[in-house]
Amino acid sequence: MKYTALICLLLGLSAFNIEEKPEDTDYKNQIELWHQQRVNTLKSESGWLNVVGLYWLEEGENTFGTAIGNKVIFPKGKAENKLGTFVLKNGIVTLNVLPGIQIRANNELFSKGVIFDGTNTKPLVLSYKSLSWFIIKRGNKYGVRLRDFESESLKNFTRIDRFPVEESWKIEGTFEAPASPKTIAITDVIGLTSEQPLAGTLSFEIQGKKYKLDATGEGNSLFIVFADQTSGKTTYGGGRFLYVPKPADGNKVVIDFNKSINPPCAFTAFATCPLPPAQNRLAANIQAGEKVYGDH
Question: Could you tell me the domains of the chain?
Fold first, then answer.
């Protein structure tokens, strides 16, 4: 009887030790809901899991289709050998579609016309069967970004591994906007460097050590590209992204590293992700947020 009572007591103590506070559970549920929304966005038509190509155009004519002889070669089996021609001239891209090929723009048949002139507020999206594409500009380069709504990456996606959610990684810090307009140099994965407006600098502490992160972004959201001691090991080697609400009043900010996410380049080889600037490479071991995805 005494032995049985002792076991019951120990089990009761164990349950007490692992019991979570209601506020802890609420916070974890909030993060789980936020993460599910993040996954839904990745899997959506505008998400990164269906991006299957990025083709840089040459000045002049660029034939496209699935045949090897084209300058722009779409995935085999997804379209005809030849679909038409992209013409790049002085920063303007025109599309000429071959007769009989039913390419659509805004759900209407498209045969010939300008699809990019640098003034587009939203890219003109063209589609053919399961494929869609639009023009992007990076520096002085113009490219065709291709999506496949039947991509293998989309079909095979199951989950993104993450560190356990710990509220201790929700850290209060301070925000300091620059006294006068300032920019920071951001280099992307294709080697292009651009000067981005500095929104401000976040200062905070992790285990008694002080750190800083430079943020860009507009409006009410601060955008941070950072790396830490997990980068290239348990997390993506090119760093991670983090969005932080900009303080409406005063200078207090909440930096929630549980919301650290992989950049698009972790899901597709056809993105042009920014890399962390030198000042955003932290000598901290941030075991929070998303881990490395797949074989990236």
Answer: 48-148 (2.60.200.20), 160-280 (no CATH)
